[in-house]
């Protein structure tokens, strides 16, 4: 199985070692360097429909990069689009749901499936809108977050509330709901006012038992700032 390791502390690289015949796939433009034994191709994952949903609903690339060790063993270096840390996750007994733009790379035996969310959750974006990406299969998955990343454990009876723009991915067995406030008793208008006055945006409340990966910086705020700095 391909070996993923993270090298460097600030804006690190993802180092991947592949044995002859092994392959991975990653986001478009993630490849930084690869040895000559490896071959790079652009492919659609999951067919035309899935590729279109990832592109238009989740903002991911239509074609993903597939890297295969066709001539022998080889190494490659990958990097996420946004500056920040990465996390290598084991997929199999535990599956994950992935926020927009967080996917970096995965073993070829891991699938990314696009499924619909309920209307109430989908209306508050940044978790995939009406569509959300969920893993299946077994292997390893690599995700990235803007800034540093950390893994939080959710325990039964101890819900956690996380600002929506700081969520990278979460255990698919967790239950989640989105609101404009941490309060369940203030009503929609009261929550909206509280959200504006506290400076917080949408939040996700997770319950059950599982893991959530979070990042220290707001991806949405960074992209908004980046857009505002572009020449008119």
TrEMBL record:
Coiled-coil intervals: none
NCBIfam families in alphabetical order: TIGR00266 family protein
UniProt protein name: TIGR00266 family protein
Protein's organism: Pseudoduganella lutea
């Amino acid at each position: 199985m391909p070996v993923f390791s993270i090298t460097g502390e600030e804006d690190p690289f993802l180092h991947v070692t592949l044995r002859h015949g092994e392959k991975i796939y990653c986001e478009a433009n993630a490849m930084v360097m690869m040895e000559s034994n490896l071959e790079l191709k652009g492919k659609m994952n999951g067919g035309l429909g899935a590729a279109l949903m990832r592109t238009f609903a989740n903002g991911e690339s239509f074609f993903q990069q597939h890297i295969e060790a066709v001539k022998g063993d080889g190494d490659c270096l990958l990097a996420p689009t946004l500056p920040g840390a990465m996390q290598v996750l084991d997929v199999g007994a535990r599956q994950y749901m992935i926020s927009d733009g967080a996917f970096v790379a995965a073993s070829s035996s891991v699938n990314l499936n696009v499924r619909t969310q309920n209307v109430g959750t989908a209306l508050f974006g940044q978790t995939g809108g009406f569509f959300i990406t969920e893993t299946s299969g077994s292997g390893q998955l690599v995700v990235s977050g803007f800034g540093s990343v950390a893994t939080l454990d959710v325990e039964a009876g101890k819900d956690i509330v996380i600002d929506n723009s700081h969520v990278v991915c979460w255990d698919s067995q967790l239950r989640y709901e989105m609101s404009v406030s941490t309060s369940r008793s203030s009503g929609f208008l009261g929550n909206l006012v509280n959200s504006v006055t506290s400076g917080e945006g949408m939040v996700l409340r997770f319950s059950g038992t599982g893991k959530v990966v979070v990042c220290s910086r707001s991806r949405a705020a960074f992209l908004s700032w980046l857009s505002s700095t572009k020449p008119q």
